[in-house]
TrEMBL record:
Family membership: Belongs to the CDP-alcohol phosphatidyltransferase class-I family.
Superkingdom, taxonomy of origin: Bacteria
Matches recorded under PROSITE patterns: CDP_ALCOHOL_P_TRANSF
InterPro entries assigned: CDP-OH_P_trans, CDP-OH_PTrfase_TM_dom, CDP_ALCOHOL_P_TRANSF_CS
UniProt GO cellular component terms: membrane
Keyword Ribosomal protein on entry: no
Protein name (Swiss-Prot/TrEMBL): CDP-alcohol phosphatidyltransferase family protein
């Protein structure tokens, strides 16, 4: 099941794992496995990728990065096919993502010639890129009755859905705000009026989807196996400039 109605679907370059994710989710539909189990599985895959980077097994690192990306799509798909959406799963997914991203970038810094400041700024840039993509995507999903567990503005702790505990939501939302709050505020300051746009053209969303975590992990995996480890962090630092380009295009055209 798509997060958007058919007429508003776009080619999401970061979502290449979705077809496989749907197969896995459908296979798990009538089992005891929950979306939370899948989230834990992608955390393990991400940690294995970090380990492989550190010991120089770059092909294996690439495999686990791509696997992590696929499993990252499975948990949401499984929640939809089981009809068990939850804020617990939504925030656990996000918190796991940013912590794994930090570990991945630290591991790359340790095995490359990049300076620490480049690593820090590249990581901040990576998160800013992902925040812009998620911001525009959530606006579309909310506008056209797609996935509703994500909100355009994450200001207040949501009320727990049926089947989840409020204290779990409270804790994970607090972690989410701690880790993502500054990025959300930054994007809102840069383009707070985006929610007033009637829609975003498919071509625009496809371009912005290069900021999606799946595509970012694909770039990292590709550069690792091509022996370009020293370029990874500078690339993401430089590509952050496209945040301002996409926002300028959005403001000028829609």
């Amino acid at each position: 099941m798509s997060k958007l109605p058919k007429e508003h679907n776009f080619l999401d370059l970061s979502d290449y794992g979705r077809p496989i994710a749907r197969i896995i989710a459908n296979a798990l539909k009538n089992t005891i496995f929950t979306p939370i189990h899948v989230t834990l599985a992608f955390i393990i895959s991400g940690l294995l990728a970090v380990y492989c980077v550190l010991v120089g097994h770059y092909w294996l690192a690439a495999f686990f990065l791509i696997l992590k990306s696929i499993l990252d799509a499975v948990d949401g798909e499984l929640a939809r096919v089981k009809e068990t959406p939850s804020y617990t799963g939504r925030y656990l997914d996000s918190v796991a993502d940013i912590l794994l991203n930090a570990l991945i970038f630290i591991s790359i810094w340790l095995i490359s010639n990049s300076q620490l400041w480049v690593c820090v700024l590249a990581f901040l840039g990576l998160q800013l890129q992902g925040t812009l993509y998620n911001y525009y995507h959530v606006i579309l999903r909310n506008k056209f009755d797609g996935d509703t567990t994500s909100r355009v503005f994450e200001n207040k702790t949501p009320k727990a859905m049926e089947g989840e505990k409020q204290n779990h939501v409270n804790i994970l939302f607090g972690l989410y705000k701690l880790l993502y709050g500054a990025f959300d505020k930054c994007i809102y300051l840069l383009d707070g009026n985006a929610k007033k746009a009637k829609t975003f053209p498919n071509w625009f969303m496809t371009a912005v989807s290069t900021f999606g975590l799946g595509f970012q992990l694909l770039i990292i995996a590709t550069m690792l196996v091509l022996g370009l480890k020293d370029i990874i962090l500078p690339f993401f630092l430089a590509y952050t400039l496209m945040v301002f380009v996409f926002i300028a295009i959005r403001k000028a055209l829609f």
